[in-house]
Amino acid sequence: MLEKELERKFVEMVKAEGGLALKFTSPNMAGVPDRIVLLPDGVFFFAELKRPGQKLRPLQLKRKEQLEQLGFRVAVVDSVESVARVRHTIRGGDAAYD
Q1: Which long-range contacts (CB under 8 A, 24 or more apart) does 21-26 make?
Q2: d(CA 60, CA 47)
Q3: Fewer CB within 10 A of the terminal residue: the chain, N end or C end?
């Protein structure tokens, strides 16, 4: 599955949960996550989407760690199963953001 297809499924899932998955680009900082996710009740997290089997580049891992140190959650979505894990977490299940 291509990253673009996975991203589409992820965005659809977020919309189905009543939220927004906004494309995120930062002209002044490389390596930031692909999406800012805004959900009802003030739930907020970042999402980095990857093709199945693909790992975070070193700079992406650094940005993920920086955001987490600031107290933000960062989901790495690299499969349909990981989309399902994030959905489960949104609905009140166990943490599935790494």
Answers
A1: 21/47
A2: 11
A3: C
CA 74 – CA 65 distance, rounded (Å): 9
- Which amino acid type is present at position 68? E
pTM: 0.86
Structural tokens at position 47: 């999402």
Alpha-carbon dihedral angle through residues 29, 12, 76, 58, given to the nearest 10 degrees: -30
Instruction: Check residue 14 and give left, alpha or beta (phi > 0: left; psi -120 to 50: alpha).
Output: alpha
- β-bridge mates for residue 12, sequence order: none
pLDDT of 10 over the 70 cut: yes
Residue 88: the pLDDT is: 77
